[in-house]
Specification:
The complex is a heterodimer.
Chain A lengths: L1 H7 L15 H6 L4 H24 L9 H23 L1 H7 L1 H4 L5 H9 L6 H31 L1 E2 L2 E2 L19 H18 L21
Chain B lengths: L5 H10 L5 H48 L3 H6 L5 E8 L4 E2 L8 H5 L5 E3 L11 E3 L1 E8 L5 E11 L4 E9 L4 E9 L13 H4 L17 E2 L9 E2 L6 H15 L5 H9 L3
Parallel strand pairs in B: 9-10
Antiparallel strand pairs in B: 1-2, 1-5, 3-4, 5-6, 6-7, 7-8
Classes of the chains: A mainly alpha, B alpha+beta.
Chain lengths: 218, 267
């Protein structure tokens, strides 16, 4: 099944975050808790799927000279709608995600998919590809969010897993996990783990250092 | 004769080559219009729900402010007749406004006669104009005298309006607490006005000195006197906005006369 491949490829083999290193700004910013990571993943997936569908449907009539600005207008409008919905129905969560929901408009995962895939494919494969990429992004966010919340607060989705020292347990929360640098370390570790398991993802070095020769200075 | 049937015009437009200037403009216009409708629709339809959320958040913050003031929860829980009442006050006459209830306040404020224009010299908090009617909260003890007032204050910060509430106790010269209801300051810098540790510095600060001028302020750097709280590093404009907001609202054009009236026992 070709569609199945389109859907599952971006989850691991072509993951937008770990292979293409796209959209890492939000991946670092909103993953302090699992709930925030899940909300952000859902919001991004909804935006990328609907944007891909719309852009793919009008692709034949989109003049190439204005195609980028038109894509951005469509993506930005969808983002505003999602942001408003979050503010209406998930008020506390939208306060916590603050500016990052609006910043989905500038997330490279979204524009990357609409520009490179939706513009050249029919709506169904375009939306499947977008869903796959959304899920790939979500997977990384959920992994980072779980690890950071578990070691930073000792909880998962707010439920206590490790009893912290403050509550009389043994676990000392790691404050580093709540800061942005920890997400860099975790993301780096994740990329390393995936690339050592699937060595075809390792990029070929563009330049090779010339071997040093003995006595080259003379 | 020019074609006027819109459906046929639409087809004609779509049949043009993508590179044509007319089609480019038409497509740009149509997509922008559709997006504008989508965004406007979402904002208009969802606004009532969002307003309700914000009102609930403000209520929760007021309750949190009350909970932070030491000893207040016992006072409120005690059965000696203390209770928190909501009063609409008239700032020009420095007394309660008998005809206006909190329910009718929004309609009264829609009337421009209930607002006072501020001259640039007066308007240190950058408000433009000040409402003459304000909804405040009073806590009376068993004898009926005022123990504590909670006053809404507002001003213009670095990123937009700041709305806050300040609780004042005792001789109407001591801050009991301060809470920020809403702000648009830079997260991590000015946005730290919302942090509990910073806000709690206001507790038990003095407001006016012996000469009667308002001294309560955010210091430049670390607090040195009993009137000051520590500044937030890297947020000079937010700090000064907070200072100006406090000085305006606690001064003669704000709640100053009202606080005097409460101190005299006229309330």
């Amino acid at each position: 099944m070709k569609l199945w491949g389109t859907l599952t490829d971006p989850i691991l083999r072509q993951n937008p975050v770990t292979l293409q290193i796209l959209g890492i700004c939000s991946a670092l910013a909103v993953t302090t808790t699992l709930a925030a990571a899940i909300t952000m993943s859902l919001a991004l997936t909804a935006v990328v799927v609907s944007a891909s569908g719309i852009i793919s449907a009008i692709r034949k009539h989109l003049p190439s000279s204005i195609r980028l600005i038109m894509q951005i207008i469509i993506v930005a409008s969808l983002v505003i709608v999602i942001d408003q919905v979050l503010q209406a129905f998930f008020y506390e969560m939208s306060q916590r995600l603050s500016v990052f929901v609006s910043l989905i408009a500038t997330n490279c995962v979204v524009l990357g998919r609409t520009e490179s895939f939706a513009l050249h494919n029919r709506p169904l494969p375009a939306m499947t590809d977008a869903l796959g990429n959304g899920l790939g992004y979500s997977l990384v966010l959920i992994i980072l969010g779980s690890v950071r919340e578990l070691f930073g607060h000792g909880t998962l989705l707010g439920y206590s897993i490790f009893r912290t020292a403050e509550q009389g347990g043994w676990f000392e929360p790691m404050n580093l996990m709540l800061l942005a640098p920890s997400a860099f370390f975790l993301l780096g570790g994740l990329v390393w783990a995936i690339r050592s398991w699937r060595s075809e993802q390792v990029e070929v070095s563009e330049y090779v250092l010339a071997p040093s020769r003995e006595g080259a200075n003379e | 004769m020019a074609e006027m049937n819109p459906l046929r015009l639409w087809r004609q437009m779509l049949a043009l080559p993508n590179e044509s200037k007319n089609k480019t403009i038409a497509i740009a216009f149509v997509i922008s219009a559709i997006c504008a409708v989508m965004v406007t629709g979402a904002t208009v339809i969802l606004r009532p729900i969002q307003a309700q959320n914000r009102a609930m958040e403000q209520q929760a913050r007021l309750e949190a402010l009350l909970a932070e003031i030491p000893g207040l929860s016992q006072l409120l829980a005690g059965s000696d007749g203390t209770s928190l009442t909501t009063v609409v006050v008239d700032l020009q006459r420095a007394r309660a406004s008998p005809n206006v209830t909190p329910e009718t306040l929004p309609t009264e404020l829609a009337d421009s006669r209930n607002w006072t224009q501020l001259t640039p010299q007066e308007d240190i908090a950058n408000l433009g104009s000040r409402a003459d009617l304000k909804q405040i909260y009073l806590l009376r003890n068993a004898e009926g005298s005022v123990e504590l007032v909670i006053l809404p204050i507002s001003g213009t910060g670095y990123g937009g309006p700041i709305e806050a509430m300040i609780a004042i106790e005792g001789e109407m010269n001591t801050v009991a607490g301060l809470t920020i209801l809403s702000h648009n300051e830079t997260p991590g810098l000015g946005g730290r006005i919302d942090e509990t540790a910073w806000r709690q510095q206001f507790a038990s600060k003095q407001i006016r000195d012996e000469t009667g001028s308002v001294r309560l302020a955010v210091a430049r750097g670390a607090a040195a006197t009993e009137f000051e709280v520590d500044a937030i590093t890297g947020a000079t404009r937010t700090n000064s906005a907070m200072t100006r907001m406090l000085q305006f609202w606690l001064g003669p054009l704000g709640y100053g006369p009202l606080l005097d009236a409460i101190r005299r026992g006229d309330f």
